[in-house]
Automatic annotation (TrEMBL), chains A, B:
Provenance organism: Paenibacillus nasutitermitis
Residues reported in the UniProt entry to bind NAD(+): 111-115, 135-136, 147, 156, 174-177
Entry's localization field: Cytoplasm
Protein purpose: Catalyzes the conversion of 3-deoxy-D-arabino-heptulosonate 7-phosphate (DAHP) to dehydroquinate (DHQ).
Gene Ontology MF term list: 3-dehydroquinate synthase activity; metal ion binding; nucleotide binding
Cofactor(s) listed: NAD(+); Co(2+); Zn(2+)
Pathway: Metabolic intermediate biosynthesis; chorismate biosynthesis; chorismate from D-erythrose 4-phosphate and phosphoenolpyruvate: step 2/7
Name of the molecule in the record: 3-dehydroquinate synthase
Binding site for Zn(2+): 189, 252, 269
Pfam families (alphabetical): DHQ_synthase (PF01761), DHQS_C (PF24621)
UniProt-listed Enzyme Commission number(s): 4.2.3.4
GO cellular component annotations of the record: cytoplasm
Domain 3-dehydroquinate synthase C-terminal: 186-328
């Protein structure tokens, strides 16, 4: 077993630690206690049916042995659980379980469970404590930073809050059963954190892509630690997304449009973002950045098994239209996060719609590397 | 016309002003602008059917003349609108109206509208700006302090947030059409603010009760100013109800139980709280406070037309049972806010259930003053 890594999200009195390591579920009781999660009031664990089968019994057992009273709520897997209807069911469950103002809600699962359980914690009795126990690589992103939400039938993540957890507990062992495609998709946001902030880490990903794909615990622990470090640094400087936090959207303007047009089955979020990041790199080169920005971006994404070319059958007009509906669109020009070098980006608020269309067309011809 | 009164709720970067005066609706445009409510993004006014008839057209007209784009949403009057279903309808309305992150939601109405619209503002896109335009006396209490919520079928106010408004705009003219019974019930929380914090103001209410009942604008403006001042002082010291803010619950432990047992039609909130405050004063005397605490409390509440005796037909066992379900109950003893003198209270965490039962019985025999 490798050593546990720890880092802190610095937000004044709302600061909290992230623990990353193998076998951390077994230490949940001690770590909860260390972070001041009380034992007098019941704890509600929220998870989904897939994760429940693998990890729920263990977490319940560990917490109960440490003296916690736990209740569990298991929701169906997938994005459809991020609804106000499931939110209300969880409120009922919280009431029935006797949760009070000193209770804690634990999100055991991926991003859907974290967003949903987090918004329940943000709203129950106007806000109670909350712990993130992510079980996917992708959730290294959503579990840090306090953004929680459910969907409205007409818009994703439109009903939510900023509610920071008390701690994030990342057990690398829970990642060992992830399907290969989800591993790569999760690494997309890891690489993104390098591309916006840390060129050395991008180089490291380039050198160690195969270890990551093989779920080597030491490599995975390091990569998640670095990814969380960047996310924490950005969030510490701009908790409520007034300016800097926007750089976390690298690749997301094109990516969200691709998800919407392709349907959520053809492209996973991480895959769409990967293509979007190649688009941003192309845009960067068009705007004067060195060619290396594009070649390195493509190479490192390919290394971790991610697509860099836009599927040709996706209609450019529909992609452009989907982008127009995106929040980042503003009167004729578009807001883009654009790399200036590897590990550096800027917020460009006046990218012309025509240039974006050209990039989308180019992305369909992108050379795929071996 | 009397001068406008202004006071500030001091909460660091979340500080905001309360404006109280006659004809302030006509000045809404300027006051919004002064507080930084932007004109580029649409404003959504939320109100109920009763208030809409009287004041909506004027507010819309004034804001549009100042250059604001407004949309309106009218909900049914009454507590049943504080539901997740109406909350979701308002989210749909906000989306359709094109509200963005710089938009503002205006609550025009009493406590129900303020709580509901406030929770929509707290959650839409994880929180947008919010303005309170209270149109009842009771709402002087709920519109200050940032507590917003909707009800769960099994519990009041259980789903909510702390979300401070940008400003509170209190037009005394909107109060002139209130029915007499609601005037008295609203004054209950005004008197409460005196009883917990300011003995001179209690004396003033005692001296000027008839002017308040006659809705004399100068007296009403002063009383609301004083009530809001106390509320603001308490909230500034304890925004999230960790300790001090609990003193605002004077009379509420018994009061909530009476509301639950009597049904929400027999006793208005303010009436139930009035009887609860007499109960707290009785409790205080039992615990050693001077007799004057009881006599003055009863006298001032009577002066503003409020009941001081508990209706005999309400069953003591059921009242006790309702109190046990209250959040303020803890293992055999109860938490009560207890006066130590007029204008001073303490938080007593070990009041015996037996003593409370005795007080409830005594409240049924309370002598009513002329």
């Amino acid at each position: 077993m490798n050593a546990m890594r720890e880092l802190s999200v610095e937000l004044g009195e709302r600061s909290y630690p992230i623990f990353i390591g193998e076998g951390l579920l077994e230490q949940a009781g001690e770590l909860f206690e260390k972070q001041g999660i009380g034992k007098k009031s019941p704890v509600l664990i929220v998870t989904d049916e897939h994760v429940a089968v693998r990890h729920l019994d263990k977490l319940v057992d560990v917490l109960q042995r440490s003296g916690y009273q736990t209740e569990s709520a298991v929701v169906p897997p997938g994005e459809t659980s991020k609804s106000l209807a499931v939110f209300e069911d969880l409120m009922t469950k919280a009431l029935q379980a006797g949760l009070d103002r000193k209770s804690t809600i634990v999100a055991l699962g991926g991003g859907v469970v974290g967003d949903l359980a987090g918004f329940v914690a943000a709203s129950y009795m106007r806000g109670i404590k909350f712990v993130q126990v992510p079980t996917t690589i992708l959730a290294h992103d959503s579990s840090v930073g306090g953004k929680v939400a459910v969907n409205h039938p007409q818009a994703k993540n439109i009903i939510g809050a900023f509610h920071q957890p008390e701690l994030v507990l990342y057990d690398l062992n829970t990642l060992q059963t992830l399907p290969a495609r989800e591993v790569s998709a999760g690494l997309s946001e890891v690489v993104k954190h390098g591309l916006i902030w840390d060129s050395e880490f991008v180089q490291w990903c380039d050198d160690h892509g195969d270890r990551l794909l093989a779920l080597d615990p030491e490599a995975l622990g390091y990569a998640l630690y670095k990814g969380c470090t960047v996310k924490a640094a950005v969030v510490s400087r701009d908790e409520r997304e007034n300016d800097l936090r926007m750089i976390l959207n690298l690749g997301h303007t094109i990516g969200h449009a691709l998800e919407a047009v392709a349907g959520y089955n053809e492209l996973l979020h991480g895959e769409a973002i990967s293509i979007g990041m190649v688009g941003s790199a192309r845009l960067a080169v068009e705007l004067g950045a060195p060619q290396e920005v594009l070649t390195v971006t493509k190479r490192v994404l390919s290394r971790v098994g991610l697509p860099v070319r836009l599927p040709e059958h996706l209609d450019t007009d529909r992609i452009m239209e989907a982008m127009m509906h995106d929040k980042k669109f503003l009167e004729g020009t578009m807001i883009f996060i654009v790399p200036t070098a590897i590990g550096q980006v800027e917020i460009n608020k006046s990218v012309s719609t025509e240039l974006v269309r050209k990039i989308v067309e180019q992305l369909k011809q992108e050379a795929v590397q071996a």
